[in-house]
Amino acid sequence: MLTQKLQSSPGSHFAIVDSGTPIHIVFDHLFVCNTKEDHTPVAGFSGTASRATHRGDLNARVRTHHNEYITLVDVNSTLVVPDCVRRLYSVRQATHKGYRVILDSNKPGLWVCEQFIPFTNDPETNLWLLPLFPPTSKDNGIYPMPSYSVRLPEDLQALRQQWLMEHHRLGHPSQKRQAALDIDGLTKPKVPKLACPTCLASKARKSNRPPPTQKEERSHIPWEDIHSDLSGKIATQSARGYKYFVVFVCTYTGAKHVEFLSHKNHFIHAYRRLVTELGAHPRTLRTDQGTEYLNKEMNALLETNYVRHVVAAVNEHYSNGVAENAVHTIRTTAKAMLLHANIPKKYWCYAISHATYLNNLTTSSRADRSKTIYEILFRQKPDITRIPPYGAFTCIYKERRDLNDQSFGLTSIQGVFIGIAHHRKTLGYCITDGSRVSCTRHHIAFDPYLYPFKMNATAPPAWQTFHNLTTTKPEADIRDFTAPQTTTDLPHTTELQDNSDESDFDPEVSAPADMSAEIDRPRPLDVP
């Protein structure tokens, strides 16, 4: 508390000079003008938490060492916190505005435009205090006067004009650079931080993106609020004929779900498949302004099912940053797995599905950072003991009685693991020998240290340098990919082969003629 002598000083109010707080703090509107509503959280000295109600400009009169009063105006520098006990004058904010703060015990004070405002010392608390006097523009109790009528002192106005003139002569450099110049002919007036209208119009950039939403502001029901974004066109067409993938992200848990498209305008089919998996439409869908989202069919579908469509503004992609980051994370994870295992690029859709599955197993949930997305949704910890490393040698076992040669026929299908994904309406472990894809849910065995495609000549030319530098075996020369011959003795039964030329992903789009296996869409989070 302040001493009784300081508290009884006529006409003055004191603000503690604080070098820790980044902004001025007051508990009333006496020294604030041009206020607007603001609810920034504020932490007290003792660890208590509070919130501001308004933000505005500091507007006060101070007394110089010549007993003259000048008006002190700091734009957008003050928070009004009604339950704070003392006013705080921020040293960091004053320095940012171009003032010079001296906390030396010999002559403590504040330099403003060659005017010195001395500080007062409280002998009981040993704190430096800045005496503040109410501005003349405030309400005098009889006739209210608007606070925006405050004008800078005439000497400050003249210094500002001088600074702007020199600023223009020098080609509009930054104020910090202009103040540091040592050139003949410059007066270098000491002024607070000022804004040049020309620089604002021609040189200013977009401000930093706003902070992310807090957990309390998000939906508390999984898949009720969804972000979505479409990947760019992928140069290598997948084995299923796809060129795009679309990501859906749950705002509450952070869970991710992917669908694959042959054309951008087939997004409406991907959305319908998502609704089929979830069993209901989301309440909110957040996207960018892509034409795959903004079209008559999509708008009619969303309006019919009472879905609120929130579209990000132009050049504000951070509004949909959750989905854009998910696309980047999943794509880079899939690329790393394909590169490490030397899997042909045409299997990228399987890698994307598996990368999404692993991301949901390992990523912390937005609802609770101490738990993974899988734990939030299924209330149990994930188990990866039965998940093979990507590209590892894997066998799918068959019944012995189904073999033509039950004595010496191989009871397994051999291949490399290419991901947990849907294949012929079955979610399970998918393997390939380079020509066909097989899938099972349970009957697998794998060698985590054997990667057949790394030993064979299967790498695309773009990855040739990497494998030449990282593969030590001489037989691992890199050439263009050619499909190896099947070595299994098992007959190609109808159950193992898929010669269908239809596509259940996109209506009116047929699968490539040379495709012998298909994969269905993955669920948002499912366990094989």
Written overview of the protein:
It is a single chain. With 528 residues, this protein is an alpha+beta fold. Among the domains are: 4-149, no CATH class; 154-202, no CATH class; 216-349, Ribonuclease H-like superfamily/Ribonuclease H (Nucleotidyltransferase, domain 5), CATH 3.30.420. Helix content is 21%, strand content 24%. It has helices at 4-7, 91-96, 154-169, 175-180, 197-202, 267-278, 296-304, 321-341, 348-362, 373-378, 452-455, 464-470, and strands at 13-18, 24-26, 32-37, 41-43, 49-51, 54-63, 69-80, 87-90, 100-102, 109-112, 115-118, 120-122, 127-132, 225-230, 244-250, 256-261, 284-287, 308-311, 393-397, 412-423, 426-432, 437-440, 444-447. The strands form six sheets. A five-stranded mixed β-sheet has the order 16-15-14-17-18, sandwiched between helices. A five-stranded antiparallel β-sheet has the order 22-21-20-19-23. A four-stranded mixed β-sheet has the order 8-1-13-12. Helix 8 crosses helix 9. The radius of gyration is 34 Å and the shape is elongated. Mean pLDDT is 79; it is low at 1-11, 139-152 and 474-528.
Keywords, separated by commas or semicolons:
528 residues, alpha+beta, Nucleotidyltransferase, domain 5, five-stranded mixed β-sheet, five-stranded antiparallel β-sheet, 12 helices, 24% strand, elongated, disordered N terminus
Query: Can you summarize the main beta sheet?
Result: 5 strands, mixed
What structural category characterises the helix and strand content?
Answer: alpha+beta
**What Rg is obtained from the alpha carbons, in whole angstroms?**
34 Å
What integer is the average pLDDT? 79
Oligomer: single chain
Strand content: 15-25%
How much helical structure, as a percent, in the residues?
A: 10-25%
Strand arrangement across the biggest beta sheet: 16-15-14-17-18
Q: Quote the distance from N terminus to C terminus.
A: 66 Å
| CA-based shape | elongated
